[in-house]
Amino acid sequence: MGLIQIPEGRLVFPYMTAKENLETGSMCRRSRGERKENLEKVMEMFPILRERRQQLASTLSGGEQQMLAIARGLMARPRLLMLDEPSLGLSPLLVKEIFQILRKINDQGTTILLVEQNVRQSLEIAHYGYVLENGRIVLSAGAQEIIKNDHVRKAYLGLLK
């Protein structure tokens, strides 16, 4: 149906190569016939994966594994890409790179549902956002409106007016 989830913690297949991991992402009917083209697209988007394609996934760095997990999801040509905490455990430099890639994926036409504690960077790339507190939605609005909300600025961004 075009829905792909990238779970928290990456969950790559550790004893498969990066290329084999990517190929598993194109097993669905929707993308199977375009495996070669999709593989080329994700390797262009994530050049490090081209270099590491024959390397076991377990030997990749955390950031490389996160890129592999996202690229594997893109191999299915999703309409909606759902990501849970893609920046978890990554260096600030890699977080910035992941968010730039997410923006590019969205700009290319894929809808993204992002669950992320990195509020500032999430809202910078989002069109719309929801703020959850104790499992309830307490605010939903355009991303820029949320950034300007005094409660959000104080509670989540560490900013006072």
CATH class of the largest domain equals Alpha Beta
Order of helices and strands: EHHHHHEHEHEEHH
The assigned structural class equals alpha/beta
Shape: globular
**Intertermini distance:** 44 Å
Total number of beta strands: 5
Task: Itemize the secondary structure elements and their pairings.
Elements: E1 3-6, H1 18-24, H2 29-32, H3 35-45, H4 47-51, H5 62-74, E2 80-84, H6 92-107, E3 111-115, H7 119-125, E4 128-133, E5 136-142, H8 143-148, H9 150-155
Parallel strand pairs: 1-2, 2-3
Antiparallel strand pairs: 4-5
Helix pairs in contact: 1-5
Features:
three-stranded parallel sheet; alpha/beta; 161 residues; 2 domains; 9 helices; two-stranded antiparallel sheet; Rossmann fold
Q: What features would you describe in this structure?
A:
The chain is α/β, with parallel strands linked by helices and 161 residues long. It has two domains: 3-117, P-loop containing nucleotide triphosphate hydrolases (Rossmann fold); 127-161, no CATH class. Helix content is 47%, strand content 17%. The strands form two sheets. Strands 1-2-3 form a three-stranded parallel β-sheet, with helices on one face. A two-stranded antiparallel ribbon has the order 4-5. The longest helix has 16 residues, at 92-107.
Summarize the structure.
By secondary structure, this protein is an alpha/beta fold. 47% of the residues lie in helices and 17% in strands. It is globular.
